[in-house]
Amino acid sequence: MNRRNFLQTASGLSLSAVLNPLIARSEGFLDGSSDPATGSRIKRFGDGRDWFFEKRYGMFIHWGLYSIPAWHEQHQWRGRIERDKYVKLKDLWNPVKFNPEQWLDILQESGMKYLTVTTKHHDGFCLWDTKYTDFNTMNSPYGKDIIGMLTGACQKRDIPISLYYSIADWNHPNYPNQGRAHELQPQPQDSPDWYKYFEFVKNQVIELCTNYGKIHGFWWDINRPAYRDTSVNEMIRRLQPDAVINNRGFDDGDFGTPEREYQADTSLSFDRPTEACQSVGMESWGYRKDEDFYTDRHLMRSIDRFLVRDANYLLNVGPMADGTLPAESLAILERIGAWYNSVKESLENVTPASPMTTNRRIMLTSRGNTLYVHINTELPGNVVKLTPVNTAPVKATLLNDGRNIDFAVRMNPSDHREQKAYLNLKNLPVEELSNTVMVIKLEFDRSLDEVVQPESPFDGDSRWIFS
């Protein structure tokens, strides 16, 4: 049997799926080809928006009046608070300890590369100097333009900033609240008129896209009327050509936005730009005084499983009413950041390579002759078998702490049907590092196209079986 026929039948995988992850991912391109520069099945924009593919990991900030009662960012809706009572929180808005430089210090120390921040959440309170509503930070005791402060600080450090904007609005009299999800019941004092409200939205978008220098993204949320109008995003692109736009606005935008849970998603890659988002808190994206928090392991697995598939990831924290980040959130960011910084070479400027193995307990990325093994699910034991890879690496290193990892190309008793030997990573410190995601760096002396060899353990001298 020649090498090509052997590889096409080995483990029931095609040649491309086993040896060439660049080809294996190509089906995501409309013309059936992969990106020649990156090997990704996700086509780049080919313009200034491509920063999105370089700055994979970012910080999400949900901040507004809801940080004062400190229960949920949708406090008004979930708590059934009357509007005339909720709006009085504006008179208490005075985040005197807000310092954008401190936020950005934490962002950079945590390995994050960009920032997305709420400019207006569903409650309608605006964190910038807008002339289209007086329900904003300038008409509060604080009296400062928070978005102006943040964009200026980001631009000084060359950190991309993306602006979140909620289409749903519980304060504006023209928004047609109908009691749908994330809407109030119809308000007797309102004058619902979608087209008047839509003009308000466009005017505010123009403010955000013209008054604060260069921005890098626009993050829509809650288009409950499901209104379609491509002209709005076209306007954003004219005003801010480097801004990526998500898919929750008035058309499909540039990228998808899966939220919160990740475990039900078993795909090996994405076919369009994607940015997942998750919060450190289990209940609220805004600051919650009595919050319940995800485990480090849960967050690391979520981050890892998206980044290895060529997606972006936003990890959210909710600042307190005074403008500082909660101690619990800071501690989580510090721990997640320590992990991320130790394994980031396996997540940045790499190619998704999971089709190279049939082992679905792990995922793979690659760069050159190096393969990275991401252990982002629960292992049943202390070994990982990289079926059908049967070439030993020159070196195997656990990126988390730099230790060497034992390995062997061997036929296990469980491989008796195939009668083939495969690469095994042995004696993994699964108990010691049970609260993290381990990433193992495998350095080969040959192209990754050649790590599956046609020889079986019985080719030539088979005396090894008795040793």
Helix count equals: 11
Write out the CATH superfamily name of the largest domain. Answer: Glycosidases
CATH class category of the largest domain: Alpha Beta
What percent strand? 15-25%
Q: Name the strands of the widest sheet in spatial order.
A: 5-4-3-2-1-7-6
The H/E string reads HHHEHHHEHEHEHEEHEHEEEEEEEE
The total strand number stands at: 15
Mean pLDDT: 90
Protein structure class: alpha/beta
CATH architecture of the largest domain: Alpha-Beta Barrel
What is the C-alpha radius of gyration, as a whole number of Å? 25 Å
What is the terminal separation in angstroms? 28 Å
Task: Give a short overview.
Helix content is 22%, strand content 15%. The protein is built from eleven helices and 15 strands.
Describe this structure in words.
The radius of gyration is 25 Å and the shape is elongated. The protein is 22% helix and 15% strand. It is of the alpha/beta class and 467 residues long. It folds into two domains: 152 residues, Immunoglobulin-like; 292 residues, Glycosidases (TIM Barrel), CATH 3.20.20.80.
Search tags:
single chain, 5-stranded antiparallel β-sheet, 22% helix, 7-stranded parallel β-sheet, 2 domains, 15 strands, elongated, alpha/beta, 467 residues
